Amino acid sequence: MIRRIIRLFPLLFLPAIILAQDLPYNNSYAFGLDVSFVKQQEDNGNKFMDTDSTVKPCLQIFREHGYNWGRIMICNEPVSGRLVQDTEYVVSAAQDLKKYGYRFLLDYMMSNGWANPMVQPVPSLWKNMAHPKKVKAVYQYVKETMTALKDAGVMPDMVQIGNEIGNGFLWPDGRIRYDSLEFSKWKNVAEYLAAGAKAIREVSGKEKYVKIMLHVDHGGDIEMTKTFFNKMREYKVDYDVIGFSFYPWSHGTLLDLRDNLRFAAKEYGREIIVVETGYYWRPGNYFRNAKPPVPETPQGQRDWLEAVNEIVMGTPDGLGKGVFWWEPMSRGRGYFDEGRKVQPIIHAFEKYSLPVNRTDGQTRIQ
User: Out of 22-26, 62-66, 78-82, 191-195, which region has the weakest mean confidence (pLDDT)?
Assistant: First the structure.
């Protein structure tokens, strides 16, 4: 009998091995960057150099140093010269990501321009809509844009419904205020999120599991995290991943981040990504009245990213799933110096993520 079981052993596990190829990227840690402006910079003729001064496409530089995820924002109707991230742009940028072997996080701004904790404007075409019509507009917009990406062969691996939505989005009907919870529009926010999630699930279908992220800016704040995600639980919002922003001038200390990630992991049991962090390689304007946690130098910038990453990797139950830098093309806190040569920060993930490809000829099941 034992010999029979031994002979059957490989067959018992064969279905699991086959199915593993079709499962979501459960074990993929995100060494990520927001690359929303890479295509725009290079389309404008700007050239960038690797550490050896060789000119290469930015995505190639990042990939060769171990980065494996790219995040791209999408705006409803971009209104400024800098913001060009409409559907056509995002499709093209996502094709570039796939070309270099990245996984793709799509970030819905749900506005014509910037959306963040201080401003969450309604897209101009939705301004005069009553709430029920805006819910339908969210569903239709997400479905149309997701379908365009699917048709182009660049379905996202993960999607944010809104950007830094801890204070809500699509204001004023989707406004959340922590100093006045009785006036906050939690139900409206939940309905917008449900509409977006429904569209994502319908377009992705059974062909590909697309994870849904809820992105808030409360990286170092347990009480705000608790308030927001308890409400998401109360309204049964469909999501897979908790995304945090964490900047030292806005969201607390590294210990605050550590404690909040521990809390969120234990309380909600969802995957967690610090989907935005950043630091200056030359003195910025954020520490005028405070001592910075590390020097604002090229090495200090790298030290910051490494420290954040170590905390995320230490999240309980293996629920820390990645870190994204915002954004590598910016001046002063991006990845390149004034001569457009990449800085020491490019090496921050290498000890975990290299080599990019195995050298023994075997294929790893992901």
Answer: 22-26
Amino acid at 95: Q
Quick one: which H or E segment has residue 263?
Answer: helix 254-268
And the tokens for 307? 């420290």
**What pLDDT was estimated at residue 24?**
37
Confidence of residue 7 (pLDDT cuts 50, 70, 90): very low
Distance CA 235, CA 190 (A): 6
CB neighbour list of residue 364: distance below 8 Å, 6 or more residues apart = 358
SS3 238: coil
C-beta of residue 98 within 8 angstroms of C-beta of residue 155 = no
pLDDT reported for residue 80: 64
Cα–Cα distance between 57 and 193 in angstroms, integer? 36
135's enclosing H/E stretch is helix 131-151
Does the active-site annotation cover 327? Answer: no
Instruction: Indicate the pTM of the whole model.
Output: 0.90
**Catalytically annotated residue among 191, 276, 296, 327:** 276
Pick the catalytic residue from 164, 271, 296, 327: 164
**Can you tell me the distance from the alpha carbon of 13 to that of 60, in angstroms, rounded to the nearest whole number?**
37
Write the pLDDT tens digit of every residue in 139-188.
Answer: 999 999 999 999 999 999 999 999 999 999 999 999 998 887 777 899 99
CB contact set of 332 (below 8 Å; sequence gap of 6+) = 280, 281, 282, 284
List of residues 6+ apart from 165 with CB closer than 8 A: 120, 189, 214, 215, 216
Is 276 considered catalytic here?
yes
Q: What do you get for the CA distance between the two ends of the chain, in Å?
A: 34
CB of 79 within 8 A of CB of 366? no
Angle at 76 between CA 74 and CA 82, to 5 degrees: 65
63: left (phi over 0), alpha (psi -120 to 50) or beta: alpha
pLDDT mean across residues, the chain: 90
SS3 273: strand
**Two tokens, residue 145:** 């844009």
